[in-house]
Write the structure tokens for this entry.
Amino acid sequence: MRRLVRETRPRPDQLVLPAFVGESAAEISAMPGVRRHTVEQIGDVARAARDAGVGGLMLFGVPDEADKDPRGSQAWAADGILQRGIAACRQAVGDELVIMSDVCLDEFTTHGHCGVLAEDGRVLGDETCELYAQQAISQARAGAHVVAPSGMMDGQVRIIREGLDAAGFAEVGILAYSAKYASAFYGPFREAVGSSLEGDRRTYQQDPANRREGLREALLDLAEGADMVMVKPASHYLDVLADVAAVAQVPVAAYQVSGEYSMIEAAAEKGWINRRAAIEESVTGIVRAGADVVLTYWALEVAQWLD
Ligand code: PBG
């Protein structure tokens, strides 16, 4: 009877696997089971995702420390780590998996902020958006199907759209991180990408206390031409996700972030919760709240369970 009347059943093809590509491979101690891959290895990750029936891959680049600078210029270098990773994935899977790439400067800047800084240390939104457009174009050139601006600068979607179109990439889509909150749950990710950040991102990411503002951010991105909008983190923002899903006429994504992953892994390792049941419940809850697409570090495993 429960099977008959079940309302929500996540599908493998709505899952997206976030993956890290760097100059060297590494374990990520705060995310057991997640690794940073080399360019040589990342094609195998893409093949594994395709074979598991997963819908897409979200790539993050991790440059060497020596390649960082205050402007994050490796972010739009034709031979940057992320560009090489994108190309390797496209070569491995062609069009059989949607290859998405992170558009943001934080992995590439010496100060670790998502944009360029004024002399007094403030993040300069408009100047940063121009660099995002360059970065997005270079990712499209490398073969990204979808670019995903995660920096939360006002106007980023419109400027990236205009840049892509002018460069001949009208068919490359934009998945906008629209309602991205200044969250404590990004901690393990910052280890994964070797973040240089000191301080916080509260001048550009949203206040966790604000629900209406999350919806407003999504509506702005839709008006600017976003092809998909995202709410992030997922589990603690299901109300925002449901609000956005109620009005968006594009697919809505949710990102089950690193801290959401690590908490369940840690509790399961201690024997305090049933790992598989907790993972399935968390992903089901995100889909139930309205996500059409779920970014999760468990994408491969969940896809196999669902199969
Ligand atoms: C920034 C970015 C972050 C994440 C994705 N993109 C970190 C941040 O905003 O500090 C977090 C993802 C996760 O925690 O899994 N480019």
Observations:
- The chain is about 40% helix and 15% strand.
